């Protein structure tokens, strides 16, 4: 366990709408006192739980370790609270850092000023303890400090993830408005897709759904290729980390075709998806094709279809979409009886234009965009022409 056998307290952030799925994942890695809240999940555990969550969570965006909490009224209180903490016991002066402040119902006029006060407090503490101060780097810092300000309470966190966890180190290239990997992983979960079942993305773009599905099918931990923020902290336990990585590596299956199908009308997208799959060493798990969704053929009698259709924002042509949706509806009715289909879109009229009735509408956020995941079950027999 950690100091005095008191477990660490963490907060895992995630795309809004996926909190319960993240809570389930955290339970799998041995987290305790799991509490989902809007935009994330708080939990307790020792360092091995924290490392495992970073390595294995497909849904989390960051895993933050809580180092302090308390009451505040103004910026001066935040300075005092940050100055009280012994930052040099957690990271070395040679590591540059950044401070990110988020506020909800926060009474302060300027979060920028609050950020500055916390930065100053950290630097002053370093000067006092080690005689010099760490540099600030807001782009790629070695250490990230997060401050969360509510109406009366502050919470300070050290980020154990480093770069956001959806950066798996897989996707070299992407097309405009790519889907984030952790949102794609959440949608695969919500669709009820099981390994071994055919899955098709007929608008695959740069291949995010295909990459995520292949990693799930082959039991590849999402963090297997990358480094993490906790490796720069002074309390890093390399033996524990090494053991977890070896355990994960021993479970990976050999790459073989996994009934994962992808296609796109845009040849450039197909090429990018192919190059991303190749770079990840997963091309053999997937079958790719250059084909318009209106000409797509179901690869099996039943399965799961997932798609993140171009939004008006991305395609730039509302009319083109209004024209495309009825055709998509026809294709689904004619060729996909027996399939469960899932569409993530911020266009709430989509099912109506497709002339299909969704059985579920799950609110999800793609970054700041409020979307719906529409579930449309194509019942076998009734729609066949």
Structure keywords:
single chain; 385 residues; alpha/beta; VC0802-like; Rossmann fold; 2 domains; 7-stranded mixed sheet; 11 helices; 14 strands; elongated
Strand order across the largest sheet = 2-3-1-4-7-6-5
Largest sheet: 7 strands, mixed
Q: Give the number of DSSP strands.
A: 14
Give helix and strand order, one letter per element, not per position: EHEEHEHEHEEHEHHEHEEHHEHEE
Q: What's the number of helices? A: 11
Radius of gyration: 23 Å
Task: Give the class-level CATH name of the largest domain.
Answer: Alpha Beta
Please indicate the count of domains.
Answer: 2
Percent range for β-strand residues: 15-25%
What does this structure look like?
With 385 residues, the chain is α/β, with parallel strands linked by helices. It is 32% helix and 23% strand. It is built from eleven helices and 14 strands. The longest helix has 20 residues, at 111-130.
Task: Summarize the topology.
Elements: E1 8-13, H1 19-28, E2 32-37, E3 40-45, H2 47-56, E4 62-71, H3 75-84, E5 97-103, H4 111-130, E6 143-149, E7 153-159, H5 181-190, E8 199-201, H6 208-217, H7 238-251, E9 260-264, H8 267-279, E10 286-290, E11 303-307, H9 312-315, H10 318-335, E12 339-345, H11 350-354, E13 360-366, E14 369-377
Parallel strand pairs: 5-6, 8-9, 8-11, 9-10, 11-12
Antiparallel strand pairs: 1-3, 1-4, 2-3, 4-7, 6-7, 12-14, 13-14
């Amino acid at each position: 366990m950690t100091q005095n056998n008191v477990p660490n307290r963490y907060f895992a952030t995630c795309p809004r709408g996926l909190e319960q799925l993240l809570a389930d994942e955290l339970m799998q890695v041995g987290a305790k006192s799991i509490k989902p809240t809007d935009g994330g999940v708080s939990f307790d555990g020792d360092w091995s739980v924290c490392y495992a969550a970073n390595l294995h969570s497909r849904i989390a965006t960051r895993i933050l370790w809580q180092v302090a909490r308390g009451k505040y009224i103004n910026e001066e209180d935040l300075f005092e609270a940050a100055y009280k903490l012994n930052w040099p016991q957690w990271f070395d002066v040679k590591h540059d850092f950044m401070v990110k402040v988020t506020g909800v119902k926060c009474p302060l006029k300027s979060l920028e000023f609050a950020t500055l006060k916390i930065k100053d407090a950290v630097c002053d503490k370093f000067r006092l303890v080690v005689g010099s101060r760490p540099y600030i780097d807001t782009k790629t810092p070695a250490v990230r400090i997060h401050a969360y300000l509510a109406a009366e309470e502050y919470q300070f966190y050290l980020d154990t993830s480093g770069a956001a966890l959806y950066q798996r180190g897989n996707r070299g290239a992407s097309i405009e408005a790519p889907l984030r990997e952790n949102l794609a992983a959440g949608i695969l979960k919500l669709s009820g897709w099981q390994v071994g079942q055919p899955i098709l993305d007929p608008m695959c773009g740069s291949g995010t759904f295909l990459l995520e599905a292949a990693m799930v099918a082959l039991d590849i931990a999402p963090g297997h290729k990358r480094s993490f923020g906790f490796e720069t902290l002074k309390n890093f336990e390399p033996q524990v980390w090494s053991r977890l990585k070896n355990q994960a590596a021993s479970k990976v299956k050999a790459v073989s075709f996994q009934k994962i199908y992808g296609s796109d009308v845009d040849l450039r997208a197909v090429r990018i998806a192919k190059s991303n799959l190749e770079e990840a060493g997963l091309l053999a798990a997937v079958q790719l094709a250059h084909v318009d969704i209106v000409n797509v053929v179901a690869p099996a009698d039943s399965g799961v279809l997932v798609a993140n259709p171009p939004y008006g924002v991305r395609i730039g042509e509302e009319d083109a979409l209004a024209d495309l949706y009825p055709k998509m509806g026809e294709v689904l009715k004619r060729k996909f009886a027996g399939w469960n289909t899932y569409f993530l879109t911020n266009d709430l009229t989509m099912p109506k234009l497709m002339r299909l009735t969704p059985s579920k509408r799950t609110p999800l956020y793609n970054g700041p965009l409020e979307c719906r995941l529409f579930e449309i079950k194509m019942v076998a027999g009734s729609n066949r022409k």
